[in-house]
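Invent a record, attention on tokens:
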Amino acid sequence: MAEPRDAAARRAIKPVICYPTDTLPKPSLSLYQDAARTATKVSEIIVSPREAASIDVPAGHFLKISCIDGPQVGDLNLFNSANLTERFFSGKTRALHGTHVTTGDQLWSCFPYLRPMATVSNDTLGWYGIDEFGGSVHDVIGTRCDPYTGKVLGGTDYHHCCHSNLTRALSDARGLSLQEAEPLVHDVLNVFMCTGFTRDTGQYFMKASPVRPGDYLELFAEIDLLAVMSACPGGDCGSEHSSDTAACHPMLMEVWKPAEGSLQGWSSPPLNSYDRTHGR
């Protein structure tokens, strides 16, 4: 179809930020970072390649996710540990903070709770920024590799994709059946994953992660959390996922407890105060 005469003018209209964050309460990042320096480790778990694992993170503690062997991407789900229906909302996090998160950004929970679940307190890949392809690290735009899309595209059943890994791990963590656990698994924070959208077709792309052993993403738990993470079968996601082809590596999740008195003035955020009458 031919372009209208005013096509250039229509394209030239300046964008408007949907959710200006000037009035968004800011986390006390310096308080968190100071507290992290004197924190002591209280628990840890290794996430095996092409598998998932879980760990509980009390409010006011840090979750440190580390690359310990070779470049590896992790798909992270977060839940309110006492109420699994309050879980990470990647869409609203994306709307507030952008397609990728880094130090100072917060991870928000779903409706009707909508509050910060965690704050990114440190990110050793913060230097990466946005590359020439439009790629960046720690995205909230991807969903997670799953067996259903694999069935549609390739006609195969692959059981160690991130969706299935997360389902099994959540089932084990809370004694749920797979049928009970699966609907609770949700769109992820793609830890260490380097992604973006192609400029010409707008398609979601991935490229080899810049993560190296020693790199980590540190999250401050604003509420009591259950963290469930899959070590993606795509490895560094530089070629493909949902198969046993890529080289994969373990990942480490640690919980660190701040020293007594190091979080003076901090309190866990309350539930969203909207009255939920919806106009009735």
